[in-house]
Amino acid sequence: MKAVSLPRIKPSLPFLLRGLFVAVLSFASTAVFAQEGSAAASESLITLPGIVITITLLLIPLVAALLLVVVKANALFKSIRSRKDTEEAARFSEYLKTLNVEQLNALQKDREHQDYHLNNRELAGPFSPEDSRGLLSSISERANIRFIEAKRRALKRPGIDPALSRLILWFLGTATFWLVFGTSVGEYVGIKFVAPDVDQVSWLSFGRLRPVHTNAVFWGWSSLAMLGLGYYVVPRVGNIQIHSLRAGWWTLVLINASVVFGTISLMAGINNGGGEYREYIWPIQLLFGIGLVITLYNYVKTVANRKTTEIYVSNWYIVAAVMFAIVISIVAYVPNYQNGLGETIIQGYYMHQGVGMWFMLFTLGLVYYYLPQQLNKPIYSYSLGILAFWSQIFFYTLIGTHHFVFSAIPWSLQTVAIVGSAGMIIPVVSGTTNFVMTFRGAWHKVAGSYTLPFFIVGIIFYFTGSLQGTAEAFRSTNLIWHFTDFTVAHSHLTMYGIIAFFLWGGIYAIVPRLTQQEPPQLTVGMHFWMAFIGMMFYTVPLMWGGTMRGLMWMEGAPFIESVVMMAPYWLWRAIGGSLMWASHLVFAYNMYRMINPRHTVNINDAAIERLNTKDYELVDIK
Known about the structure:
The chain is about 70% helix and about 0% strand. Helix 6 (about 245-265) packs antiparallel against helix 7 and helix 7 (about 280-305) packs antiparallel against helix 8. The protein is built from 18 helices and no strands. The chain is globular. By secondary structure, it is an all-alpha fold.
């Protein structure tokens, strides 16, 4: 018999995937019995948790790789097409330089003739109707009904290094992902207050998902968004390029990796367990800390090489915030002195310094740049900014233990924390006064801006939320509100009402300047009002219910009665949280519209623009 040689088939990726899928199905359909008649005989291997986790872990990188290939191919195609159009525009620009004035004028007239189109009003004429005798009334020249007021578009600024723009957009893009992910988890956790038996899965239990929510929005959303906006501010106010783009990319990778690994470990039940907001185990938090060290080096080198004489107040706040974040992380994760009450004291220090000396200090530095930029006027008082800076450093570092009033911590240490909380009135009032007075003479610009309302809300809650924290610190009020939902409302009023709204204002201010693409003004308005109203629905009922609950405890009412009493307030919490979560989806859509390229290069316009303008990044100050 003559041997027949079969052709060799080169396996492709879809072929391998289909083979893997068939193998998995075959494996799933085969039941392996340890002993006939035993209770485990009817259980298939596919239902074992270890097998499920293994298959899931195998499929995740495969699916991610396929998605990455599609995204990269699409981006490469757009990049090649844009580069070809830009090169054609450059060649056309060089050709235009060889023409004389008469030839250029002839080309311009020819283009005007080609661009001319009828507007269907030729018989009516281009002039507005006149009625000197007053015979007509209630004339409307608009055929459509305007539901929203048109806002001012972003002003075109001097060009920024495209490589730095790409880094900033990656920071803000990944921050947006963690915002949606973290608040989706928070939405699910909020639903559990109304329907606690919605699932029976250990990975989705309240005790595991709650730290997933807080850490994702803290280290993923807020931290990455702050750093991204900071990479624009730090070199801009120093009139110099960022020291190292490579360092920025390393920071981006390390922080995202820490949040990914931290989320998986928390859901698997692997956590630090030592205190709130430091649930990540130390090897994972170390990745975040290394990213901060790299960022500090990058920022400090940029400020040191600045071309301006003074260090603008924004860089004071931003660099100091990164320094404090590193110190706070080291203090919180060194275990030598964390025994008994020592751990409680360190927990109070870490928790409050993380909010005030990392998130608040960094964000205030951003506001000192983006708010004057949007108003197109200088900050009201540089001295007030410095006063707020140093007074916040002095008082805020003392107030951590006001969360443990009436505890076994020494009474004197509690009193120092209360005095420090009262002293926070100085930086809060001076900072708020500085921001509000910057608006003086420019309040009319709010109606035409879609960024300034975010800053106004942030300023309002910076004042009210911060002073609310001072009010909570006193022993008489702490006796009522501590351990109640009032504290939950306060934390959202500050981290959401201040930090998130300030970050959104900065993002809407800068991304259109980096991409030359505006977000839809209707959806920006939807994002603002849904987030603001949702926050009110969330915080006000919890503050009211938390106060009533504290009073019930003081009267000695059974604990379960306070739980039943809080049920309707938790329902309002779920409603408000749902509005907030939906607003984040709208924000993610706005980010997509601002980042995703929608226009093609017009060779004629690009050539004329290159001919008439000079491409520059910074002003050279001698």
